[in-house]
């Protein structure tokens, strides 16, 4: 019965997390295709392009959002690997992306229960921790003449951030929980592997886990050997990522992140952290009355996470302070709050415990509904979300055109979509993954608007090795250019081959 409840709660959390995808597919107009866009379009199509590359790759990826041929990297390895495994099952990239969200959400919840059980040593407490972990949300507030919830950018108190629609983020969250569980179970070899994988996806989270282990080892006067294993296992991956992100285009992501500091005032912070956080604060004394290794680990981890979040240190390190918050932090807070709720149950009549539980549920469930309403607002006219079946068929057919190194000049917004659906290279697209994006956006628009001279047009195409152009089929100005040979055309889109190369 207990295991059945764990599975049911995990399935409910999974259903909530994939509901935007389900609604997106359900709301698809006739003769249209839902592209699966359940978070920021540019990021989604970049991650989806890695799934698409899985048709021909196992682990390495190439950046398809700039005309420059950059070296293959392991950035996004988990997306490529997942895409490849689904490709072996003949499942295309878009459904593979959505299915993997469901799989990782479910496994994250099971891993959360396992870690809670290792910490609290009681299956009933572990079950309540899982419930709080799933239920966790910010305080409701009244703003702009309606009820909503307190929030800040990338607030992990909100389920769409804590779980969300990004497979590799769900994977790294699961790995963080899994790494800590393996540490507590003293499964050193598996812990080393998990730490390596975690560092390859999120080095800051790996460092926080490692630092927590080291600090508690000193406090409890235990061997630092597990800390050394964690450090040495993840260090190669962290060094590799640091080297890669010092080169274009990934260095642009580092510069952007350094500017994303979220100033948090105390009142706004507490409102955004929600009522379960308040319960956890009030429960700290009870929780730490038993200073076991396991309890100290999650207390120190949560303390480090929140301290860095509220301090100027991340800015000094050129990282966003949000980088130091995580799904694991919310799980740690949920475990601490559980101990306080159980203390109430022991010392006071059961009716008070159930009244408090009912109050929490009543306070937080509407926030979940509000989050889902915001996440399921799809627009049939938005090309980032829906395309006609003919256009999708046309675009996916481009996988057979040209060579993998060929660059396509694609009009907006299809320049973001083409790499995700076809695996073809776009001249420009994602603003942080296109090298010199502002210059390229201006040049691309100038070419399509025909504000360049004929000589400038040819020079532009040759200098950027552009071999194909995708435009609207009604753009007659392009049809009059002698070196553009129509290859395929629909009522809406057309692809030209550039006949300027030997």
Question: Could you walk me through the main structural features you see in this protein, from its secondary elements to its overall organization?
Answer:
With 502 residues, the chain is an alpha/beta fold. It has a domain at 2-34 and 92-375. Helices cover 61% and strands 8% of the residues. It has 22 helices and nine strands. The chain has helices at 2-26, 41-53, 77-88, 93-120, 123-135, 159-162, 167-185, 188-201, 203-219, 225-244, 250-258, 266-273, 275-287, 293-310, 313-316, 327-347, 350-375, 389-396, 414-422, 437-449, 454-463, 476-479, and strands at 32-34, 140-143, 146-149, 386-388, 407-410, 425-426, 466-472, 484-489, 493-498. Helix 9 crosses helix 14. The radius of gyration is 25 Å and the shape is elongated. The mean pLDDT is 93.
């Amino acid at each position: 019965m207990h295991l059945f409840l764990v599975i049911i709660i995990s399935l409910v959390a999974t259903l909530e997390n994939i509901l935007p995808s389900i609604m997106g597919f359900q709301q698809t107009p006739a003769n249209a295709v839902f592209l699966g866009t359940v978070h920021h379009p540019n990021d989604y199509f970049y991650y989806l392009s890695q799934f698409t590359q899985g048709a021909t790759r196992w682990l390495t990826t190439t950046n398809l959002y700039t005309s420059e041929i950059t070296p293959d990297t392991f950035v996004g390895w988990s997306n490529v690997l997942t895409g490849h495994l689904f490709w072996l099952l003949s499942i295309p990239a878009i459904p593979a992306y959505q299915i993997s969200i469901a799989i990782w959400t479910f496994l994250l919840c099971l891993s959360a229960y396992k870690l809670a059980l290792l910490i609290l040593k009681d299956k009933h407490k572990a079950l309540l921790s899982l419930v709080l972990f799933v239920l966790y949300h910010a305080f409701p507030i009244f703003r702009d003449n309606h009820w909503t919830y307190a929030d800040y950018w990338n607030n992990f108190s909100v389920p769409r951030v804590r779980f969300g629609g990004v497979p590799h983020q769900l994977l790294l969250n699961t790995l963080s929980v899994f790494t800590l569980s393996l540490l507590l179970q003293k499964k050193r070899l598996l812990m080393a592997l998990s730490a390596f994988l975690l560092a390859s996806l999120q080095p800051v989270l790996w460092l926080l886990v490692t630092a927590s282990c080291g600090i508690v080892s000193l406090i409890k006067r235990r061997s630092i050997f597990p800390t050394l294993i964690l450090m040495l296992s993840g260090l190669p991956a962290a060094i590799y990522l640091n080297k890669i992100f010092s080169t274009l285009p990934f260095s642009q992501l580092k510069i952007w992140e350094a500017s994303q500091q979220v100033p948090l005032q105390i009142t706004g912070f507490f409102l955004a952290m929600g009522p379960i956080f308040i319960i956890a604060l009030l429960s700290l004394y009870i929780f730490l009355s038993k200073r076991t290794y396991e309890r100290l680990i999650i207390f120190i981890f949560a303390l480090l996470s929140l301290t860095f979040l509220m301090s100027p240190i991340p800015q000094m390190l050129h990282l966003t302070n949000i980088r130091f918050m995580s799904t694991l932090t919310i799980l740690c807070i949920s475990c601490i709050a559980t101990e306080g709720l159980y203390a109430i149950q022991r010392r006071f009549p059961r009716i008070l415990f159930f009244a408090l539980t009912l109050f929490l549920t009543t306070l937080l469930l509407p926030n979940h509904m509000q989050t889902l309403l915001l996440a399921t607002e799809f627009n049939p006219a938005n090309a980032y979300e829906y395309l006609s079946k003919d256009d999708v068929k046309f675009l996916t057919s481009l996988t057979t055109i040209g060579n993998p190194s060929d660059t396509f000049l694609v009009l907006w917004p299809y320049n973001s979509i083409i790499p995700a659906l076809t695996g073809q290279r776009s001249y420009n697209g994602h603003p942080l993954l296109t090298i010199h994006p502002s210059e390229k956006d201006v040049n691309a628009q100038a070419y399509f608007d025909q504000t360049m001279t004929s000589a400038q047009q040819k020079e532009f195409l040759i200098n950027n090795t552009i071999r194909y152009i995708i435009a609207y089929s009604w753009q007659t100005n392009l049809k009059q250019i002698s070196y553009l040979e129509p290859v395929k055309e629909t009522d809406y889109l057309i692809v030209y081959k550039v006949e300027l190369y030997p």
